[in-house]
Specification:
This protein is of the alpha/beta class. It contains 17 helices and twelve strands. The chain is globular.
Length: 427
């Protein structure tokens, strides 16, 4: 999904020195050795590249030292999230016993659980008290736990602290600040955001809709895409393009484009994920020392909504080694290993107890990022989400291209989603 592509940009970023890496990899082991009767191999489907893959390999080696008879074979999923998803669906739907453990986008577990492809985990003694509630919710389906949070991602609003002295909290403040800066810096971009027809546009829309008090589904799971709040949200986003606060080119932008606009010093504001923070603060960038990251804006007394991204770990229902797979998942999601991954790869831990002075000393940006995590909001946790997202993407695209009004586009999306959910009895 959207945050995955963003994380891949970070693959070439050297977050730590080799010395620091050695210190972290020597963290206290979170589990005791397991004496398997005979050597086995667990296949782990992992979606990380670059520093993320290196971090995974470091953790795997530590696990294998603790459990000499358990070998972990890491296979790398496609960097294209759509292709990666289709490959997983093909393997799981065929009844294959591998991969045994899978790193899954937070929008996958409900679909996999509804199809009976992954293992319910309630009976395996996972302690989830220190995990962020929004992440835990992403792994639940119909009252059962199917996924364990690995690392969290939340979408927030970046801003230039040298140009905007007071962090804006409302839509009106963001717009006023952007227009003020553009008057003296007419070649800059007021607000950079992802508006291409893909998942990234949906997460931005959820951020804005939530700030107006809207949502995609209500508390009863019924679609409310054409609510007054959602229409106001899409109208606000579209007004950024119409008023040239955002360039027309954003209709073709993904995370990487927003990253480039912000880190090059061109953008006053930008919606993006935590991976961007260390890039914006890298030596030699015009944004170094001038980067702020806050929760998305709101209207009136509404609370911020920060779209939840990140990755869960799930276990194939047909694995031949469920106990060993559970042990591996517990190891990867332990405090020590999540902290290790945060430093080596920049992936924000899904456990609140991993955010310590020791972590901030090596990766100080996590201190500011953490303030946004409490607003993390999952996209609808339903096996129908891929189809719902497709209808929303079509609605957004039709508005940004000038083909439909926000109300007409969301009325159409609402009609399609009502029909979808009616036909499937809510999934």
């Amino acid at each position: 999904m959207s945050q995955k592509k963003g994380k891949l940009v970070m693959a070439g970023l050297a977050v730590l020195s080799i010395g620091a890496m050695a210190v972290v990899s020597g963290a206290a082991s979170p589990a005791k050795a397991y004496a398997s009767a005979k050597p086995i191999t667990l296949v782990f489907a992992n979606d990380g590249l670059g520093t993320e893959l290196s971090s995974t390999n470091v953790a795997v080696k530590e696990f294998e030292k603790l459990h000499p008879n358990i070998h972990i074979k890491v296979i790398v999923e496609s960097a294209n999230s759509t292709q990666a998803y289709q490959t997983l669906v093909t393997n799981l739907s065929s009844g294959s016993a591998t991969p045994d453990v899978i790193s899954a986008d937070v929008t996958y577990p409900a679909t996999f659980a509804a199809s009976h492809w992954i293992l319910p985990l309630n009976k395996y003694g996972f302690n989830l008290k220190t995990f962020y509630p929004g992440m835990v919710k992403s792994g639940e389906y119909r009252g059962k736990l199917y996924a364990i949070p690995w690392f969290i991602n939340v979408e927030g609003l970046y801003y230039r602290t040298d140009l905007v002295k007071t962090p804006p909290k409302t839509f009106a403040q963001v717009l006023a600040d952007a227009k003020r800066v553009l008057k003296s810096h007419p070649k800059m971009i007021g607000v950079a955001f992802e508006a291409q027809k893909y998942e990234g546009a949906v997460t931005v829309f959820q951020d804005i809709a939530g700030g107006f008090g809207g949502s995609f589904l209500n508390a009863k799971g019924k679609p409310v895409l054409n609510s007054a709040a959602d229409i106001r949200a899409l109208t606000w986003l579209n007004s950024l393009i119409k008023s040239k606060v955002s360039p027309a080119s954003v209709t073709g932008w993904q995370e990487g484009n927003v990253q480039q606009a912000f880190t090059s010093g061109q953008a006053v504001f930008g919606f993006n994920w935590p991976y961007l923070y260390p890039l914006a603060e890298a030596k030699g960038t015009p944004t170094k020392g001038h980067t702020g990251f806050i929760a998305p804006p709101v209207s009136g007394s509404h609370s911020p909504v920060a779209s939840l991204g990140g990755t869960d770990l799930v276990i194939n229902k047909h694995t031949k080694y469920p106990k060993q797979a559970v042990m591996f998942v517990k190891f990867l999601t332990s405090k020590a290993i999540q902290t290790q991954r945060a430093v080596l790869a920049g992936d924000p831990p899904s456990r609140s107890d991993s955010y310590t002075p020791a972590l901030y000393k090596q990766a100080p940006w996590f201190k500011q990022e953490k303030t946004v995590y409490k607003y993390a909001t999952p996209r609808p946790v339903t096996p129908l989400y891929p189809q719902i997202s497709a209808y929303i993407q079509t609605a957004l695209s039709s508005v940004y291209s000038g083909q439909m009004s926000p109300k007409a586009a969301l009325d159409q999306a609402q009609s399609e989603v009502v029909k979808l959910m009616g036909q499937t009895h809510g999934g």
